[in-house]
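BUG: 3D viewer hangs when loading the predicted structure for this chain

Environment: internal workstation, default settings.
Expected: structure renders.
Actual: progress bar stalls at 90%.

Input used:
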Amino acid sequence: MTTSPVASILLIVLPIAFNLAFAALAKVFDYPDILRRPTREVLARFRAGGPGLVLLWWGFAMTAVLFAPLAVLLAFRLDGADPVLLAVAATVGVLAAVVQFLGLIRWPFLVPYLARADAEPDATDARRAAIDIVFQSFNRYLGVAVGEHLGFLLTGVWSVLSGAALLQSHAVHPVIGIAGIVIGAVLALCSLEFVGPFEPRGWRLAAVLTPVTYIAWSLWLAVTGVALLL
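Structure tokens produced before the viewer hung:
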């Protein structure tokens, strides 16, 4: 297979895989609403999910890994675009994949240990308090700061750069390139939800825009993939 169909197939498959995994987590784990609950409740719900939930989180993390080859292969596909623009877009895309992976991978590796430790019958109040601090700290650092903030920001920037490259390459209809620029800009804006003055409850506008923007971003990826195949 040449670079062209591989890039197009990834553009179609990735958003489907991401949204299926997200929907499954929402159904079996009440994600992301469960994160607003106390730590002990979250860990109890995680234990109840068993090995299947751990594998589901691992699969969700792997969708982030797929984004790295997608970003690189798309850059090779867009003949006629500025080589510097393509190189920067590919680099930003790989970084977006890395930070999203780091934000998600705590769930299949760190959280199972915390869930088991919290359920130990001889666990003291001090131990459970330490588990709560560890869980919430990693949630804020890897989940919010790395996975969501940097993930949204870098993914948004990649989308803007890729939209500009699509316009330059004339590989698809210009509307698709413009859509990438607009959606990417809004996604980057959503990365400010928990920054600075919006802590600790978050910026309400970003909270409203984020799910809608991610759906639009998923559709944009798929449409771009189909357009490149045609």
